[in-house]
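INFO batch 0412 | record 1 of 1 | parsing
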Amino acid sequence: MSIYGHLIKSISYPLIAKVDGVIDLRKELDVLKRNEYKSKEQIRAIQLEKLKHILTHAYENCDFYRQRFDSVNFSPAEFSSFEQLNKIPPLTKTDLQTNLSTLIASNYPENQIHKDATGGSTGNHTPFYRDNLSLQIKRGYEFRFNNWAGWDIGEKIAFYWPAIQDLAGRHKSWKERLRNQLSDRSLVLFSGNQNEQILEQHYKQLTSFKPTLMRTFPNPLANFAKFLKETGKTNIHIPSIISVGEPLLDSQRVLFEEVLGSKVYNCYVSRECGNMACECGSNPGDLHVNAEMIYIEPLDSVDAQSQQPVKFLLTDLTNHGMPFIRYQIEDLGIFLDHDCGCGRGLPLIRMEAGRASDFLISPFDKSRVSGCSLLHHLIAEGPNVGQIQLIQDKLDHLTIKLVKGENFDDRLLDHFNNVLNNVFKNKMHYTIDYVSEIEREKSNKYFFTKCLISKDE
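INFO prediction complete | emitting tokens
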């Protein structure tokens, strides 16, 4: 780390945290570093204690959980083993959509929680809440994974990001820009819309910024890396990359290593629960779980030695504003029972399949439009029309597969029309195909968007 980085970590970073009234994550990171080398039994004990706390809190403060626990004769006061969780029915996305108000903890006032939404792996509009403190705590767990990738507080970090909702207001005022220089030292590049001019600008910004670490979705970065390779721009080096949001392909890992000279770490992240698991660098494909933040269990019983993929259930151990208890996120993975060569006692999983999105091609200027960014506008910030999938079968045409939600109304389609006309400059036509379900790929991945044409068309 440079002298400037050391000064930021030791002086300006903690000072700004104090002024802002937020957690000094240096201390949190030190605790997490000590915890991760504890034995598996010690980490399980930490999880069990936190589970009992969140279960008790949910029962005492959330009408939804009080009714649910009582209906199955589950008592948090008597909770003493992981197996007892099996009595509690999984929390589904439908539960979130239909019981949102009763899931919010009554002891959290409005100014201590904030609303968010996700399209999720099912392509449905799913709103939820977090308490403000949990968001700070979750950032500490994100820092843990960044630290594994060679980054530390005070060093530069880049975000190559297609989720436009995360970029609103970033570094707009002079105060925010100054705070960024003296604390976060981050460069945020929107990757949801890409053409040669934009990619050239990203190249110039990154070569000037020289980040230690980049956090990115793999699909837009793959487009960027291919552009660099094709144009012979080899004077760029990003030491480490953390891939999030989409399945990381082996070919993409090789591409990033070749073109950007990066060591690549695959990370399992959800909008609902944050940074849940990440590679440590010892064995590609094996991800350590942030066990003090999240408890992951299989939907159905499974023998860890069988290495069979199962659906995950998540219990968030930090979000008290709206507890997620046995949340059925629809992601698939494998539970591993071997030890890791890094010596960490944190549990291991391997992602079998997950969400994926393709880029669409704009008929306006043939730029690439991120499926992740587009689906945010259509689903996460839009009305609950139901599950959708966009298939580009011609340069100027989309087929929209739609499974009608319970509150579907033809007037809600005005939102679709407005978004698509805005994104594609009134050049994209579409047809809606109403279906009973949207099938996953053979790999069990769910594609928000699928592009069936080439950019040359």
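INFO post-check: The first strand starts at residue 113 and ends at 118.
INFO record closed
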